[in-house]
Amino acid sequence: MSFEFLITNLPKTKKAIGTDKGLAKIGDGIINLSYSIAKSIYLTKKSNSNQIVRTGQKVNKIILATALKNANMKDFAKNRANAHDLANSVEALVAYVWLINKISIQELINLITTHLSGNITRRFDEIENATSAFTKVLISIKPFLPNK
Predict the structure, then answer these.
(1) Cα 88–136–75 angle (5° rounding)?
(2) d(CA 77, CA 97)
(3) How far apart are CA 148 and CA 137, in angstroms?
(4) Which of 15, 75, 79, 92 is 20 to 30 A from 141, comparing alpha carbons?
(5) pLDDT tens digits, 102-137
(6) Structural domain span for residue 111
(7) What share of the chain is helix, strand, coil (3-state, %, to 5)?
């Protein structure tokens, strides 16, 4: 079934895209699926025992909020936004770029996997490395987003 109708009235401005709650809900699923698979791939490749690792972990809002700040894209979020609002903006941006066919879930998984590093089984390291990976994701999708 086609979902082309979902893009007929997409928001046109930075703020409108970054604060669209429907886009954020779609992006939440895309981001969590992509991160879970990317983390599974990364941990499996790093496993000393050739053990396949499957994770189902969601992305922490602090990771996404910090990545938005690091990518200098806070202008997509509402004014005086908290970490939850900033994370929602990231989710909305990813959904927008996915809906307009500028990134696929496979490309998102590859981007995240490529930019993960270190021992992400330790929570502090995971937060630091996942934040870096999502910062790079945001920088890579920025050209597909409106300038105003």
Answers:
(1) 45
(2) 16
(3) 20
(4) 79
(5) 999 999 999 999 999 888 888 889 999 999 999 999
(6) 12-143
(7) 65, 0, 35
